[in-house]
Design goal:
Blueprint: H1 19-33, H2 39-45, H3 51-77, H4 82-96, H5 104-114, H6 119-124, H7 130-145, H8 148-153, H9 161-175, H10 185-208, H11 212-241
Helix pairs in contact: 1-10, 1-11, 3-4, 3-5, 3-7, 3-11, 5-10, 7-11, 9-10
Length: 254
């Protein structure tokens, strides 16, 4: 990969000749491409969606949430380095939980429960949009097929996650009478989990991306992940705001 392959929509790219230059580029990618900028999120956080549209978002997002442990298990399998595997392992517990403790997936199901969705239907993933399934499955495949460095780099959207969680908690509690603090526990917990995960991933790529080509690959991996997140919202907007729900997908009652 050459430096020219880092996407031109970000503006002229300076030489990625240091870890600092790479980190600056990564943060620019987040500033310009993270899905907090998507119109669907503005509708969601601004209280402009119906309950049915919020249900559709939560249902589809469950497919992403429930696939994160699969992705993390694949990342772990890429490393012979024991220390990296140990560090990454806590992510599985963060999402899957452990004996006697709940994880992020259970907290997300508490959200869908609170929205009135049948838990068995949510867990079946039968009603998710085709684009949601394709995008999330592509992400799981990416971390298994690209280099271990790129696999870790693709997870760095967590650098930008706390801000969107704060916006979501405040906006949804303020605007929707069917949302209460209890069902927002997933996002509250991620306010502390995501920064730890992001700090490790950023330190890892700063240390291990040692050539301009490797740093460009790191940047492209983050761009890929922002695309994975963005296209899910494109699909939600097309189906549930514009009104083009594909056959077999969830149809809100309201």
């Amino acid at each position: 990969m050459t430096l020219d392959m880092v996407r031109s929509d970000l503006g002229p790219a300076g030489p990625l000749d240091s870890a600092d230059a790479m980190e600056a580029r990564l943060r620019e990618i987040g500033e310009k491409r993270y899905h907090n900028l998507h119109p669907f999120h503005h509708l969601l956080h601004g209280g402009q969606l119906t309950k049915g549209q919020v249900q559709a978002w939560a249902l589809n997002r469950f497919y992403y949430q429930s696939s994160i442990p699969l992705k993390d298990a694949v990342v772990i399998s890429r490393f012979r380095d024991r220390a990296t595997r140990i560090e990454w392992r806590h992510r599985l517990e963060d999402h899957d939980g452990a004996e006697g403790s709940e994880g992020g997936i259970e907290r997300w199901l508490q959200l869908t429960d609170g929205l009135g969705l049948d838990r068995a239907y949510v867990e079946s993933t039968a009603g998710v949009l085709p684009a949601t399934r394709f995008a999330v499955d592509a992400y799981v495949r990416f971390v298994g097929s690209q280099s271990p460095l790129e696999a870790i780099a693709s997870c760095m959207t967590e650098l930008f996650a706390p801000a969107i969680h704060e916006q979501r908690i405040a906006g949804m509690l303020a605007h929707y009478d069917f949302i209460n603090p209890g069902v927002m526990r997933y996002f509250q917990r991620r306010l502390t989990q995501a920064p730890r995960d992001a700090d490790f991933a950023l330190a890892y790529v700063r240390e291990h991306a040692r050539t301009p080509e490797q740093r460009a690959a790191v940047c492209e991996a983050l761009i890929f992940k922002t695309d994975v997140l963005w296209v899910q919202l494109d699909a939600l907007h097309h189906a549930y705001v514009t009104g083009h729900i594909p056959p077999g997908a969830f149809v809100p009652e309201a």
